[in-house]
Amino acid sequence: MNNGNICVSVCTANGGELSGQIKKAEEFADVIEVRFDCMEPQDIVPSFALLDSVKPVLLTFRPKEHGGNADVNLPGRIGFWMTFVRDGVPDEEKIWFDNEPDLANILQWLPGCTVIRSFHDFSGVPDDLDALFDTLSAKGDVVKIACSVDTITNAIPIWKLLERARSEQKLYIPIAMGEAGKWTRILGLAHGAFMTYASLDAGSETAPGQITARDMADIYRVKELDENTGVYGIVGGNTGYSVSPFMHNAAFRSQKMNAVFVPLQVSDLDEFMLRMVKPDTREVELNFKGFSVTNPHKRSIMRHLDFIDETAAAIGAVNTVKIEDGKFYGYNTDAPGFIEPLINRFGDLKGARVAIFGAGGAARACIYALKQEGSDLTLIARDPQKAKKLSGEFDIRFHHLTTGRRLPASAFDIIVNATPLGTAGDLENESIVTAEQFNGVRLVYDLIYNPPETRLMREATAANVPVIGGLEMLIAQGARQFKIWTGLDAPLREMSGGVRSRLGL
Ligand code: NAP
Question: Which CATH class is domain 251-332+475-502?
Answer without folding.
Answer: alpha beta
